[in-house]
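Worked Example 4.2. Consider the chain below.
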Amino acid sequence: MTDENNPRADAEPVVQTRYSSDEPTSEAVVRALAVVKGIEPMELDALCESIDPEALDSLFGDPVISDEPPTRIEFSVSDYLVVVSSNGRIAVLELDEQ
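Applying the procedure from the previous section yields the following structure tokens:
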């Protein structure tokens, strides 16, 4: 991983968005995945099949802006890698087919 704008040096995010204190992080992730797949959020498989949404919301409440590098978590959902950062950024990347 390189910088906060591009979580993978060799991959361009399919979607980048932000979460805020107005929306739980898990809902922002669902919204981003729905955009990537071109479907409504309610049409997605449950996020809990990939990660515990309550734990995600607990880890990443309000975005934190600091001079320190952001804390990040990565997890896969279907054919995508989701990267959530403590500074409020969410990136969705396609997984390499290998």
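The radius of gyration is 13 Å. The first strand starts at residue 15 and ends at 18. Compare this with Example 4.1 before moving on.
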